[in-house]
Design goal:
27 helices, single chain
């Protein structure tokens, strides 16, 4: 009996540990490099620290306070203390977002030191002009529009633009407490905020940059587990569209983590002794490539007619992958390969499925090998390190992408490309993104100032603030519209929750600060999941602020909702009707860059096959394709739910997106198969060159058609040319790497032809004049 109980306890404990590990892996995978968590923690700690520092400053220096024993004087002095804390909190919050934008520590510290200076200028302008309402409003419009124009200067422009506008906003807020005579005290409070922000960067942010690769490695493995789990779900439920969509989303996120690791490796972080950035990149590249291919092949196997013994081995292999067990993965993959070689098994499977099964077995074996290598690399946090300055310049790793604030750039680059392009006869359509943003933000600010002032002469700045944040972090019309909607939704939810918490907390200062810190943490941590969460947290913060200022009321929160709605509506209307950068333009630019990268990968692969080196030097062009695909994914995400992309694509978004996904998938297969491919020379090699030239010419036609915004060009299919090469080889009909490479090229041609169809471009077969539309 005791032995039975021990077994039960052991089993239960094992399951508990497994469940805990599973949830921890999901947590790590959901936040690559723990970037969201680190930003949320840093911001909350900084805000708590600056509140404490400002409170001490108020206790000893009594800034902006007046003498007297009346209740009115006490309320005014309390408001002065609260506003001092708010000023410091604004500095550290903006600094938390600005700090990661600087790649060098020295530049980051100078930028954070500059922020309170620019905010001070904005405060002085707001206070000096408070008696000249029209001029003051005009200055606020200029400050907001200037933030858009200053985007041209990257992180420095962000600091200056944010500082000037937020300082001007703060000046309006402080107008009822003081005038220009109190700017000395305000300068001191801003300086305290700046000092805390710099200390937080030095203590919390910059040291963690050295361990970014270690954290991203954990996220990569966690996302690999998620891909395996989603693949098992597809195998168990092959008819489930939800399972297939989930599997694809996990693959995109896995690729995102791999690209983020590359970007961090280029910044020369500390790595395990004896490990180079290039070596770690190759391991991650090989792991992602093998697992992505295995997942795609498993999806095809899920809907194929295969014996139960084969399907069981396929599922067992993916379960072992999820458990990060390289030896079982390798063993199952080899067992599957041996099973497929048996005549009685292969006779039950058609040729296409047999091909997929062999490729699946090869992929999982390759993943097992690289997973074992990754597991052997240990990242000990305090032991010997390789520092960045120890790495010779010529040996430093060059990545295909750079991070922006700790994340992939998303659609910013392709949006900038689209903004600068000429469309039709409109000269105004060709604008630098900063110029476009500056004009749009100025117009939207003017609308929100006028409309907001008509609603409330004292609270109009809420409308202006809503306009300002709608433009921040958004690169085109679709993203700006979506952000404006989330701003309104979050504000409405925040009003409801904020009113309840205000009633519960009352004027209890410690409890109010706790509510502010918790809501701020949740808002920042969840901001990239949904901006509505951040808007909701800020509204809760504002409710607590007005409770402490003894100005809280239900009517005040209702006015905030109305002003926010006006400000967001002003921004949305402006980006739709004033120099709009529409989704279709951005998608066309992203598609062209994706096709250009695809063309380079095909060219490089065929060159390697012709030279007989197996295409082993394809990491760079493959990563360039991944970067372009991630930009494409980001550019289309706002409109994908509507299954429509306006303009050139004729609204066939679903067909277009499926074709783009397929082209990317087949290109990854091509890279994997080319690693084992032997040389193709002689007459068939010459035919391969001709077929490749025909494919590249067709892709170029498609790229130029998208650039010209017209469909008079023709995409000519080249798949039959590659089929002729395959037929002419002495290994035709066998599952050799050469045959697989030629099959991949045919599939890529099919995917790009489908993309051409969705773009309303004529598609011709290579040996016929019949149009395939």
């Amino acid at each position: 009996m005791s032995h039975t109980l021990a077994v039960i306890r052991s089993t239960t404990a094992g399951r508990t540990r497994q469940t805990a590990n599973e949830w921890f892996n999901r947590f790590v995978a959901s936040d690559p490099g723990l970037t969201r968590l680190r930003l949320a923690v840093q911001t909350v700690v900084s805000v708590a620290a600056v509140i404490g520092a400002e409170w001490l400053f108020v206790q000893f220096a009594h800034p902006l306070m007046v003498s007297g024993d009346s209740a009115a004087v006490a309320a005014e002095n309390r408001a002065a203390g609260v506003m001092g804390m708010m000023a410091g909190a604004m500095v550290v919050m903006v600094s938390s977002f600005a700090g990661p934008m600087f790649t060098r520590v020295r530049d980051g510290l100078l930028g954070l030191a500059l922020l309170p200076c620019t905010m001070f200028i904005g405060v002085v302008a707001g206070l000096a002009l408070q008696d000249f309402k029209v001029v003051a409003l005009a200055v606020m419009v200029v400050a907001l529009g200037g933030a858009g124009f200053l985007r041209r200067f990257g992180a420095w422009g962000f600091v200056i633009g944010q500082g000037l506008f937020m300082g001007n906003f703060l000046g309006f807020f402080l107008g009822h407490l003081t005038d220009v005579s109190g700017v000395g005290w305000i300068a001191a409070e801003l300086a305290i905020g700046g000092a805390v922000a710099i200390a937080a960067q030095l203590v919390l942010s910059y040291p963690s940059r050295w361990s970014a690769v270690q954290r991203l490695r954990s996220s990569f493995l966690g996302r690999a587990d998620a891909v395996a789990a989603a693949t098992v779900e597809v195998l168990d439920h092959p008819d489930s569209e939800r399972s297939r969509r989930r599997r694809h989303e996990k693959l995109v996120r896995l690729n995102e983590s791999a690209l983020m690791i590359d970007a961090q490796l280029a910044e020369n972080p500390r790595l395990p002794v004896g490990t180079t950035a290039a070596e770690l990149h190759q391991h991650v590249f090989a792991a992602e490539l093998a697992l992505a291919n295995a997942s795609r092949f498993a999806r095809a196997i899920a809907v194929a007619d295969t014996p139960d013994s084969v399907r069981t081995l396929v599922r067992d292999a993916m379960v072992a992958v999820e458990q990060r067990a390289p030896e079982p993965v390798d063993r199952i993959g080899r067992a599957l390969r041996e099973l497929l070689r048996q005549d009685d098994t292969s006779a039950q499977i058609d040729d296409d499925t047999l091909l997929v099964l062999h490729r699946f077995a090869t992929s999982v074996i390759a993943y097992a090998q690289v997973l074992a290598a990754i597991n052997r690399q240990r990242f000990e946090p305090y032991l010997d390190r390789v520092r960045s300055h120890d790495v010779p310049e010529q040996d430093r790793f060059a990545a295909s992408v750079s991070l922006v604030g700790g994340w992939l750039p998303g659609s910013s680059a392709v949006s900038a490309t689209a903004s600068k392009e000429k469309t039709g006869q409109s000269v105004a359509a060709r604008l630098d993104p900063s110029v476009r943003a500056g004009i749009q933000m100025t117009v939207a600010a003017a609308i929100s100032v006028v409309a907001g002032s008509l609603i409330s002469a004292d609270r109009f700045y809420w409308a202006v603030l809503a306009t300002f944040v709608t433009f921040m972090g958004a690169n085109n019309a679709a993203e700006q519209v979506r952000k404006g909607a989330f701003r309104v939704i979050g504000t409405i939810l925040g009003v409801v929750v904020g009113a309840l918490l205000a009633e519960i907390v009352g004027r209890d200062v410690p409890l109010s600060i706790a509510v502010i810190l918790v809501s701020l943490f949740l808002g920042i941590y969840l901001m990239r999941i949904s901006y509505a969460c951040f808007a909701m947290s800020i509204t809760i913060l504002v409710a607590q602020l007005y409770v402490q200022l003894a100005e809280f009321s239900a009517g005040l929160l209702e006015m905030r909702v109305l002003e926010t709605l006006v400000g967001a509506a002003a921004a949305v209307a402006t980006v739709i009707f004033v120099l709009p950068l529409r989704t279709s333009r951005v998608v066309r630019a992203a598609t062209r860059e994706f096709l250009t990268a695809l063309s380079a990968l095909v060219t490089g692969t065929v060159r390697g096959v012709r030279d007989g080196d197996g295409g082993h030097r394809l990491e760079t062009v493959s990563r360039d394709l991944d970067v372009a695909f991630q930009a494409l994914e980001s550019a289309t995400s706002p409109s994908r739910a509507m299954l429509r992309v306006p303009g050139t694509f004729g609204g066939v978004n679903q067909q277009w997106w499926a074709a783009a996904n397929a082209a990317h998938s087949y290109a990854r297969d091509l890279v994997a198969d080319a690693q084992w491919c032997t040389e193709i020379d002689g007459p068939e090699g010459a035919r391969l060159d001709d077929a490749t030239a025909a494919m590249i010419a067709s892709i170029t036609e498609l790229v130029e058609a998208l650039a010209e915004h017209r469909s008079t060009r023709v995409y000519t299919r080249s798949a039959s040319l590659f089929e002729r090469v395959a037929t002419g080889l002495d290994d035709h009909g066998r599952l050799t790497p050469r045959q697989l490479v030629l099959r991949d090229l045919q599939l890529i041609d099919g995917a790009t032809a489908a993309l051409a169809k969705s773009a309303d471009i004529d598609v011709h077969a290579v040996d016929t004049a019949v149009t395939d539309r």
